[in-house]
Fold these 3 entries.
Entry 1:
Amino acid sequence: MFEILEHTADIGFRAWGETPQQLFAHAALALEEIACDISRVEPRRAYPIAARGEDWESLLVAWLNEVLYYLDGQGVLMSRFDLEKVEPPEVSGEGWGEPRDPERHPPKLVVKGVTYHQLKVEEKDGRWTAEVFLDI
């Protein structure tokens, strides 16, 4: 689904999927896993998430920033993403999760934002891949 990429000052990940929906869901899980231990997050409630972007890259950044808003601004972690629409200029769907409990979901890194630095989104031979670096 995803792997962590090392970088001098930041941290990143490479995510993949067979469809744009899978790619965006896996990218969201990678972001959350970098910030917290999400192994014990239960999909108790659906949270609507939507974002807009002119192209695949800006759409992915906007999507991940919405996921980050739930994590930091609302204190919600998600363990599943059901995406209805993923095509520029819009992504929409639901993230399933629960309010963050520091004992069950210990923090790892503080993610300040999603960057455009070395950002890549591509489809090749029926496989979607993205490389994303985060400001920590």
Note: The helical segments are 20-35, 56-73.
Entry 2:
Amino acid sequence: MDSSSAINSASNIQMNYMKLLIAQLQNQNPLEPLDNNEMASQLAQFSQLQQLESMNSNFASVLSTTERNYANSLIGKEISFASEDETGAGDITSGIVEEVINNVDGEIILVAGNHTITLENVISVKN
């Protein structure tokens, strides 16, 4: 979930709640009015939800930047990584990282010789 959709979802929930609250206030029984404390509590919970979603999207952005910086620091270093040979059997291969690619999906790809490796497949790093 990107940051704008996270914030929009909390805002949409809050707007829907406000519409519902207005309808309840307009149609309430005058002898049994809505509880003000409950309404205030619910509004505070929506505000907390919005802040948590915003904080979550900010954290995801920081994590993404950290991963890119880490991947860039691997250029010129020897890495070991899981790979498959021609028969499809799993093997551990090593190579020098020559390039870091950020693909359109936001995935980080390392290039070492003829191999393209995701950051998750790196097993070890040597100078």
Note: The chain has two helices and six strands.
Entry 3:
Amino acid sequence: MTRSIFVALILLLSTPIHAEYTTRVIADDLAFPWSMAFIDDDTIVVATRSGTLERISLSSSERKTLLGTPETYVESQGGYFDLVLDPDFSSNRLVYLALADGPAEANATAIYQAVLGTDGLTALTKIFRVSPSKDTPAHYGGKLAFLADGTLLLTTGDGFEYREAAQDPFSQMGKVLRLKTDGSAPANNPFADGQNGDPYVYSYGHRSPQGLAVSTTGQIWLHEHGPQGGDELNLIRPGNNYGWPATSFGINYSGARITPLTSAEGITPPVTYWTPSIAPSHLLIYQGALFQDWQGSFLVSTLVDQDVKRLTLDDTSLTSSESLFGELGARIRGVHEGPDGVIYLLTDSDPGSVIEVRPKMADSATEP
């Protein structure tokens, strides 16, 4: 029995009957699947940290490794980060891929634009690269999200050893950046004139932001890893400072204090935070009809807790939290919503899996 089949059997056999949902493995034997996008109702493309794009059928699990993909710096946290479709994908077939761009001694997060065809990518173009470069393979950020005006957001980390850069508005590290799809900076960014900050900077003071989602009302939500404790959920507003490393609810891995401050004038506090760390890895604001009780919930996948936190909020106040999918016993890297409201999970391992989640009642109703 191969390792991938063994892992799939363990996931299937170890999943208990849950009151709300059932799970099914769609694909396995993926090397650290970190993101996915829905090409149509039956097809996904999965981006792996190891630097491949895998086209997978949801119904048959048929899989193809796509050609024409860009090289990436695969080391520690480096590799392919996020894959999103252009808002006009149905007509232009454009996709955007965030990745670690080498070399090792001068690497950075970059965005590539390409046309997605049946067999792979064409018209591949690097439209943006974070400045300055760094020599650490960590804290890249790399999450992408489109706003309603067609501009693109990119999260960037502080590079782990360059944390003071997060407080420097002229550095693109430790930020949320906003750009056009041609790679240029919009004229209405907070520091567009370059006098008080970099023209691409939308918000700053971030450590390692790995969750990014835009609500139906246009609110921008982000979660980020704290150090030892202090993971945060933030509501992002243009030009605001979110504190790192001037303020933090966490401590250094050595046990030493990073800062005595958890709040300060001019710094936007988190909506909520987690101590000890849960290691949040992806953020989905669920809008589907299949899980009616979950509509509007924030689903936060985690690596340390190995679950998905379902958060409910009243405006900007957290009202409840529950743990989902912990029975899988896996580091969950991604939580995604399909076109029909089905939820898909990505497990952060090699081999990693794509797992489908459906409501138990809906699943039972289809049985003869």
Note: The two ends are 32 Å apart (CA to CA).
